[in-house]
Design goal:
Layout (H helix, E strand, L loop, with lengths): L1 H20 L17 H15 L2 H4 L9 E2 L4 E2 L12 E2 L2 E2 L37 H9 L9 H10 L1 H4 L15 H13 L11
Antiparallel strand pairs: 1-2, 3-4
Helix pairs in contact: 2-7, 5-7
Length: 203
């Protein structure tokens, strides 16, 4: 019986190895990798990305100043919170005092995430007030984007849980203008087609 079991396992392993080397068994292709460079298509994709990044759910944590913004109208944080060196508040007024690991239940209650905060002082990643061209160039600049490569930009937009909070913001807050899956697809298209920045005239 043991001999039959060993032979059966051995034959199964041979089958798996053989299958992996069969020429007719194709690996899943990265459809984006095969896309040709296309400045028009790349810019069009970025303009969709830009609309999401300029929505309140994204822009409120990427302000031009050192105070976070609040609400769908992006008003300055009412608790007089400041960025601080690490982006998590100044002195005893830390983001984590009110913002917990998850959203607090209830209408307009404090949102939450384990990483809640602004970008740090030395890498502010400002969205507020940026034109499409300015924001595209900033996202691609490793000296301003946290040292991220283009692939890391894609991964950050598609997988980072704090970025993902924007689509689960709690009661009373509007969502970005497209789903996260659609947003991530547009980021990939923008970069795959050449990561072109819009012209200075684009709005």
């Amino acid at each position: 019986m043991k001999k039959l079991l060993v032979i059966s396992c051995f034959l199964t392993m041979i089958g798996v190895v053989t299958l992996s080397f069969r020429p007719d068994v194709k690996k899943k292709k990265d459809v984006y990798a095969a896309l040709p460079k296309d400045s028009v298509g790349s810019v069009k994709a970025f303009m969709s990305v830009y609309k999401v990044l300029m929505s309140a759910r994204c822009m409120n944590c990427h302000p031009a100043g050192n105070a976070p913004l609040q609400g769908d109208d992006s008003h300055i944080h009412t608790m007089n919170i400041k960025r601080g060196v690490d982006g998590h508040g100044l002195y005893s007024a830390r983001c984590s005092n009110c913002h917990q690991a998850e959203n607090t239940a209830g209408l307009h209650m404090p949102p939450g995430n384990p990483k809640w905060g602004l970008p740090p002082e030395n890498m502010r990643m400002v969205f507020q007030g940026r034109t499409p061209r300015q924001l595209a160039l900033q996202l691609l600049d490793t000296k301003q984007n946290g040292g991220r490569s283009k692939q890391q930009i894609i991964d950050h937009m598609a997988k980072d849980d704090l970025v993902g909070w924007a689509w689960h913001p709690g009661d009373g807050r509007t969502l970005p203008p497209m789903s996260r899956a659609a947003f991530a697809a547009q980021v990939r298209l923008w970069i795959a087609k050449g990561a072109y920045a819009p012209s200075a005239k684009a709005k």
